[in-house]
TrEMBL record:
Residues 80-297 form the ABC transmembrane type-1 domain. Belongs to the binding-protein-dependent transport system permease family. The chain crosses the membrane at residues 20-43, 76-102, 114-139, 168-194, 219-238, 276-298. This is Sugar ABC transporter permease. It comes from Protaetiibacter mangrovi.
Length: 308
């Protein structure tokens, strides 16, 4: 290297405003599609907005009364705790099964992998209403296949057992349904991450005496941690806001409040009770929880970016 080259200062790369201009259309579309409903919902959360307001009566500004009413509403707290437990358990089970399926796809041959991928794509592509209807048939207390098969086990009496009539078994069925529909996304995302792991690294670890569990825990998991973080975050958000599956299962079972999650609870407050002010307040609470969950991931991204 010449003295001239060594002494020359590296000029920082010149940045222009072109990238910012290019993202303007996407930002505008996002603000129009999501901004207005969010602003309307935020304003409505501080108003007394009911059936009369839909026919032209001006809404009354009530400040934080809607949120204060929620603090003393035992049903709201029961639904909130139930929804948090449901989304955490369901998301955890989904990610665990999804990772196992991804590892399986990475280990089997081409033909078996193709069969697994097609099967999961079909499960993923099935409409929510169709998938929920199938599960309602499977767990039907009169003609359900699940009761029929379990009843064949000696000492097990599942004749006409109502899976959708008890809160615990109701949410068990809902969890199985949501996990079944969500596992393909996790599996494909994690499998894509697994394909980026160098085979030389895995072979070197195996030569050094690391068994399969040690290779998975010490090599695979750290390398696919960013993928695991994002799929877990998305599953938590999606499972917290689940609505269609719970609504359809409630229509086939019980419509009691013990079977509500946040999505159906907001719908019941707004569409059924015409109390859009309180429904909007609950929606804001869900938004705050979602932002809090997302901030954990964003903070990790910031730390990783600063460390580089």
């Amino acid at each position: 290297m010449s003295t001239h080259t060594a002494g020359r200062r590296i000029q920082p790369r010149r940045t222009t405003g072109v990238p910012y201009v290019l993202i303007v259309p996407a930002v505008v579309a996002l603000l129009l599609g999501l901004g207005y409903p969010l602003v309307w919902q935020f304003i409505t959360a501080f108003q007394d907005y009911g059936l009369a307001q839909q026919f032209g009566k001006p809404p009354e500004w009530v400040g934080f009364d809607n949120f204060a009413n929620l603090l003393w509403d035992g049903e709201f707290w029961a639904v909130l705790v139930r929804s948090l437990v449901f989304c955490i358990v369901t998301a955890a089970v989904t990610v665990v099964i999804g990772v196992l399926m991804a590892v399986l796809m990475n280990a089997v041959g081409r033909t078996v992998r193709l069969i697994l991928q097609i099967s999961m794509l079909l499960a993923w592509a099935m409409p929510v209403a169709a998938a929920t209807t199938v599960f309602i048939w499977l767990f039907d207390r009169r003609r359900g296949v699940v009761n029929y098969l379990l009843d064949m086990i000696p000492g097990v009496d599942m004749n006409r057992f109502d899976w959708l009539g008890h809160p615990l078994t109701f949410f068990l069925v809902a969890m199985i349904l949501i996990v079944w529909m969500s596992v393909p996304f996790v599996s494909f995302a994690v499998y894509a991450g697994l394909t980026q792991i160098s085979e030389e690294v895995m072979e070197a670890a195996q030569i050094d005496g690391a068994n399969a569990w040690q290779r998975f825990r010490r090599i695979i998991v750290p390398m696919i941690r960013p993928v695991l973080s994002i799929v877990l975050l998305l599953q938590l958000i999606w499972d917290l806001r689940v609505f269609a599956q719970i609504t359809l299962l409630k229509d086939a079972g019980s419509k009691a409040s013990d079977f509500d999650l946040l999505g159906t609870y907001i719908y019941k407050l707004g569409a059924a009770a015409n109390d859009f002010g309180v429904a909007s307040a609950v929606s804001i609470v869900v938004l705050v929880i979602t932002i809090a969950i997302s901030w954990v991931y964003v903070r990790e991204l910031i730390k990783e970016d600063e460390a580089q």
